[in-house]
Amino acid sequence: MPHRALACVLALVLVGAAGCFYPGAEVPYVWTPHEVVAEMLRLAVVGPGDVVYDLGSGDGRVVIAAARDFGARGVGVEIDPKLVAESTESARRAGVADRVTFRAGDLFQTDLTEATVVTLYLSTELNLRLRPKILRELRPGARIVSHDFDMGDWAPARTVRVHVQERGSQLRLWIVPRQS
Ligand SMILES: C[S@@+](CC[C@H](N)C(=O)[O-])C[C@H]1O[C@@H](n2cnc3c(N)ncnc32)[C@H](O)[C@@H]1O
After folding, report:
1. Ligand 1: centre distance to CA 49 (Å)
2. Which of 77, 78, 83 to probe ligand 1 with, by most ligand atoms within 8 A of CB?
3. Do residues 60 and 102 touch, judged by C-beta distance below 8 A?
4. Containing H/E element for 75?
5. Are 107 and 55 in contact (CB under 8 A)?
6. Is the shortest distance between the CB of 41 and ligand 1 below 6 Å?
7. Is 39 a pocket residue for ligand 1 (Cβ < 6 Å)?
8. Ligand 1 nearest-atom number relative to CA 61
9. CATH classification of 23-175 is 3.40.50.150, yes or no?
10. Best substitution site from 87, 122, 172 to test ligand 1's pocket, by max atoms within 8 Å of Cβ?
């Protein structure tokens, strides 16, 4: 486990989630377990033709797995520059540096038009704020997968439950409709 992630776990235990917020971050850094990442990418049927955007990309694990295990290209957007640097180094070590990019910035300021798949582990409130942007910028047929949080009254096309080390995760898939 990276030192930063360990520090975050300790902060969560000792002082609550506020200890893991980078200034300007709207949700704290909490990673998706690797097995759940793989299930998210399978749920979106990610393949070599895809460009996967993880909005709030943390340590980069979703984008790196999309490139390394599913042959996709990927972009991670993360407000914390230290996590961006960590992600870039992890991508280099995983041998996928030529197929992934990590950007330091605000996910709401990110152009999504190139994405064919968007992955999220944020909050229902952030998902709802993102929803108009997603429907405006993504092409019909693009897939969105969210770990644990829904999109209000936009019903998912599929829902999957995953259990990892006694913890259950709910994954939801939406597909951008033709007319939105
Ligand atoms: C719950 S973590 C998810 C990390 C990763 N996607 C995963 O599933 O392992 C959410 C991440 O979003 C980042 N974040 C929060 N608000 C953001 C914003 N407005 N723009 C970009 N990143 C943001 C946090 O710093 C944190 O790393």
Report:
1. 25
2. 78
3. yes
4. strand 73-78
5. yes
6. no
7. no
8. 9
9. yes
10. 122
Q: How far apart are CA 160 and CA 169, in angstroms?
A: 8
CA distance 144 to 41: 10
**Whose CA is closest to atom 19 on ligand 1?**
106
Q: Which two tokens stand for residue 70?
A: 């599913």
Tokens 């969560």 correspond to: 12
Point out the ligand 1 atom lying closest to the alpha carbon of residue 80.
25
pTM here is 0.92
Per-residue tens of pLDDT for the chain, all 180 residues: 455 556 565 555 554 444 478 888 999 999 999 999 999 999 999 999 999 999 999 999 999 999 999 999 999 999 999 999 999 999 999 999 999 999 999 999 999 999 999 999 999 999 999 999 999 999 999 999 999 999 999 999 999 999 988 889 999 999 999 874
Q: Where are the domains of the chain?
A: 23-175
